[in-house]
Structure formats: C-alpha cells, structure tokens
Specification:
Length: 83
Amino acid sequence: MSSGQREPLRVLVFSASLRAGSLNTRLAGLAADIVERHDASVDRASMRDFDAPSYDGDAEADRGACRRARRRSGNGSRRPTRS
C-alpha cells in the first residue's frame, strides 16, 4: 500500500444476546449496516457463534431454570428471582 492510502477499516459487530429477536441483536445489525455503507469491512458475530455456557432467557422461559440454578437460589422448583 502506498503512503497516503489507508487500509480499509475492519469492524467487529458483536451481539451478546441469545434471545430471538433481541433488541441487542437488532441494534448490532443496524450498526453493521451503517458501517458497511461507509465502506468499512464488517465481521458480524453473536453469542450463538461460541460454544460457551450462557444465559438464554428464551430457554428458561420454555424449560424453566436448570436444577442447579433452582437449588442454588433456594427456590426449589420455582424460577429464581432477580435481585
């Protein structure tokens, strides 16, 4: 690359939500679209792209909290309360 020319900007846009239709994911998509319109390169990623245990509000709503979470919260079979 000759002097005076810049390498194109590369941006990682990361959504940290696992929920379907999350506001976080929608905003990340809008941000990525804006960055692309300004001729930058965008890499999109989300928590679903990584094999790591994470909280998923949709899964809890469908199946309830896992046994470990219920046991630690002292709520037995009830869903844990938020503090």
